[in-house]
Amino acid sequence: MNRINPLVVHGGNILATAKALGCAVNELIDLSSNLTPFGTMPGLEAALMAGLAEIRYLPESGSESLCALFAEKNGIAASQVLAGNGTTEFIYAVPAAFGCQRAMIVNPTYADYATACQWAGVAAEGFPLDPAAGFRLDLAALAAKLTGGELVFVCNPNNPTGVLTPPAAILDLARNKPDSLFLVDESYLPFTREESLLTLPLPENLLVLFSASKIYGIPGLRLGFLAGSAARIARLGERVKPWGVNRLAQLAGEYALRHGDAYCAEVVRFVESERPRVMAALAALPGVAPIDGAANFILSRLTGSVRAPELKSALLRERIMIRDCANFATLDDRYFRISLKDQATNDRALAAMRVFFGVAP
């Protein structure tokens, strides 16, 4: 029996996919989940093994050491940070915590934002991005829709489009709309050179999400952070359950924050060089129009007779997983998304696509 909310479909279901295909997990190429192309950060697994005995003790109930380290690294106070069981914990907690009258969700985007609002009984309205404008976020048009009392969800860079909005421009919007609360999901910002909103003075109506899963390659450990004003964080902290982060996730976060700068910089350099190369290869396929962006993944639109489920099934026969984006609000089955892996893996996936589309090697 499937106990997962049927309204929310995610990529990266690699364990179930391997079971369904009767193959080992390492036989699959997972381009459906937006993780670092280099796999788990070097040294992190060894650090976990070294600390494995600590699972016999209760973890810090509020991940105090981890929060203090995250705060120090980002130049904010520890009272401005919460650590949770992935950013998902906070996505679902925030709509219920602050009594917002309604939500405004920039679409297409991560489906859990809308589901979190539904669970909290907060009416959500979509703010659709224009495909003809490359899915760029028109902040002036968004501002015109805000009347006060809203919870505004912005993913930056956006998932699944990969489009980046300058964080300083989002900050200006939040300052100009003090009666609206903004939740900005920066899960994919570490794959770019843009400075986080955390490096800027945060107004009281701005909350920022950071995912350790994506950039450090530890999605199975479930670790994320929420930052904001001390007052907002204190109020939300009253609703956060104790021991929400397990000890191994705490150890992984502490190791990554202390030792991850060089690794993250290498990932950024790779994405900057590899994304244009893969974009060009996708654009050379008949009936494929990739969307320009800045993240570690690429959204493409199928312009011919082929639809994403057909492409997904064909590639799955080659043990390659992609994301059919039909369940993203405002998109349909003409859209698919792939995440970047190492160059050899990307080339294997591109070769399989060329075969599918009948392009000579």
Which properties best describe this structure?
361 residues; alpha/beta; Aspartate Aminotransferase, domain 1; Aspartate Aminotransferase, domain 2; 2 domains; seven-stranded mixed beta sheet; four-stranded antiparallel beta sheet; 13 helices; 13 strands; 16% strand; globular; disordered N terminus
Total count of domains? 2
Number of strands: 13
Residue windows where pLDDT falls under 50 for at least 5 positions: 1-7
* Mean of pLDDT: 95
- For this structure, the CATH topology of the largest domain is Aspartate Aminotransferase, domain 2
- CATH architecture assignment name of the largest domain: 3-Layer(aba) Sandwich
User: How many strands, which pairing sense, and closed or not: the largest β-sheet?
Assistant: 7 strands, mixed
What is the rounded Rg? 20 Å
**In the CATH hierarchy, what is the class of the largest domain?**
Alpha Beta
Order of neighbouring strands in the sheet with most strands: 2-8-7-6-5-3-4
* End-to-end separation: 44 Å
Beta content comes to 15-25%
Total count of helical runs of at least 4 residues: 13
CATH level-4 homologous superfamily of the largest domain: Type I PLP-dependent aspartate aminotransferase-like (Major domain)
Order of helices and strands: HEHHEHEHEHEHEEHEHHHEEHEEEH
Class derived from helix and strand content: alpha/beta
Given the C-alpha coordinates, what overall shape results? globular
Percent helix among the residues?
A: 25-40%
